[in-house]
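Incident review: delayed structure delivery

Summary: a single-chain prediction request sat in the queue longer than the usual turnaround. Root cause was a stuck worker, restarted by the on-call engineer. No data loss occurred. The affected request and its eventual output are reproduced below so the record is complete for anyone auditing the incident later.

Affected input:
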Amino acid sequence: MGVKDTIGNVTSNVLNTVMGSGIFQPVLVQFGPKSANTMEDVDYNTDRIIEYMERACTGFPGIDMIIFPECCFQGMAPNNWVKVALTWDSEPIKRVQAKCKELEIWGCFDPWILNKERKGIENTCIIINDKGEHVFKTSAVGTTAKAPLGALP
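Output delivered after worker restart:
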């Protein structure tokens, strides 16, 4: 089974879980996150993500999933990738997990995640369910940015 088949099967399983036997109601958010140079910039973007989640649920009652653009936490052109990379237990990730649980919606997010095994950061898509749990993650092929020697924490 190829990568496309695997992703297709996972996506199908996720949608079946979200939809049940009803109609899938996603909300797609398009915004330009600030290009993060500090964790304060990441926090600013996270605040905006949380705000958009609340606004979407108010404006579109009954939505199933909210989907954010690529690099929604760090923006597209931070100058110091390693400095603003997140981990799975970073506060911004915990905040969107808690918000998904609070609002009882699924969320699709795209942070740059620190991967110490590969000695770099990865452009990663994560799906969080309505219980605040990670249920899917994948990294875009060829997007591991190598960190300078000694730069990883």
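Verification: Confidence is low (pLDDT under 50) at residues 1-10, 147-153.
Action items: add queue-age alerting; document worker restart procedure.
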